[in-house]
Design goal:
This protein has helices at about 30-45, 60-70, and strands spanning about 20-25, 50-55, 75-80, 90-95. Helix 1 crosses helix 2. By secondary structure, the chain is α+β, with helices and mostly antiparallel strands. The two termini are about 20 Å apart. The longest helix is centred in the middle third of the chain and has 17 residues, at about 30-45. The chain has a single domain (about 20-95), classed as Ribosomal Protein S8, Chain: A, domain 1 (2-Layer Sandwich). The protein has a four-stranded mixed sheet, covered by helices on one side.
Length: about 100
């Protein structure tokens, strides 16, 4: 669940996060990523945030590949690519969103 009144500790199963253009996936299960990324992008668009940094970590690259596959299918994505070294290198992806979108 995305909630910009972070933190919210009422339900330990519900994770809340700041909608600030940075999404760190380290605290999420892989099964949550598929719905989390589009929801987060839409929440950013509602706040006029057009650039997102998704931190997926370096590891084996499986999560990065999953993130990129999800981004490929999102109509609100203008471009995406690996971050430069100052922002995490291949452990993070920078996403640029369209200035306007239609979520349906």
């Amino acid at each position: 669940m995305i909630d910009d009144n972070y933190p919210q500790d009422k339900d330990p199963e519900v994770q809340s996060l700041w909608i600030n253009g940075e999404l760190d996936l380290h605290t999420f299960r892989p099964s949550e990523i598929k719905s989390l990324i589009p929801e987060y992008m839409n929440a950013c668009l509602e706040r006029d945030i057009r650039r997102i940094r998704i931190v997926h970590g370096k590891g084996t690259g499986v999560l990065r590949q999953t993130v990129h596959a999800i981004l490929d299918k999102q109509p609100q994505v203008l471009t995406f690519g690996l971050a430069d070294q100052s922002e995490g290198g291949w452990g993070a992806t920078i996403v640029h969103l369209h200035s306007s979108h239609n979520s349906h």
